Amino acid sequence: MAHANPEVKQKIKDLFAVQYFTVNLDFFGVYDGLRESSRQSALALGEAMDVFYDEQNLQSRLGTLSLPTRDGFNGIGRNILRQDNPIVAVPFEAILAQTEDLGKVATDSVSAMILRLLAIMLDDEFQAISKTATEAHNGTFQATKPKGHPRMMNKALTREDHLVELSRRTMMTIVRNALTFDTVEDLTSAVDHLHQPLGDPVRVKNMFAFDKKRAAAQFHYRTLMIN
Questions:
Q1: Which residues, other chains included, contact 112 with Cβ-Cβ below 8 Å and sequence gap of 6+?
Q2: Residue at 12 is within a domain
Q3: Is 55's pLDDT higher than 80?
Q4: Number of domains within the chain
Q5: SS3 breakdown of the chain: % helix, strand, coil, rounded to 5?
Q6: Is residue 78 predicted with pLDDT exceeding 70?
């Protein structure tokens, strides 16, 4: 019932945040079973989304959607798709110069705090722009708070996320929200609407283009992710 009850969801998150509880799931031989049970439940929930995807021919109608991206954010390595890209014009080098002697993790931590301050300043306007575009095209708007410091550090220190990125590994984080629509036409119209105040995105990840195997790896959850 976590999806329907915020208090239950928070209690579960608090429980899994207790290190000895989570680590001991493996020690007592129940972690693999819990993980597989959760995977099967998620796949069952995803079946309806997969059927809808086929019925609505979303591979053709959305999977082929291509949006232009902003110059200066393509490539590999430092300063690509990051908040410390010189194009963003935030002087992280000067701000963080004194943290280098403290080590990479300390630099990650301080940069995360700086990003959170920037996010707090930007978030209200970003959410207002997004909400206006969503409601103008019959959508449902859901604001999401910027990532917290613990979550940013967890991603920075996790190999599947940003561990192998160049230092400052928390530079991959952004303000965000979720916009949902009942029709393809409303979704694409909202994207066009957002283009007016925000300009070209720096990255587009179109999950409607994923094949069945790739989509099953995330339980058939698909979205058009625009950064």
A1: 149, 152, 153, 156, 170, 173
A2: no
A3: yes
A4: 1
A5: 60, 5, 35
A6: no
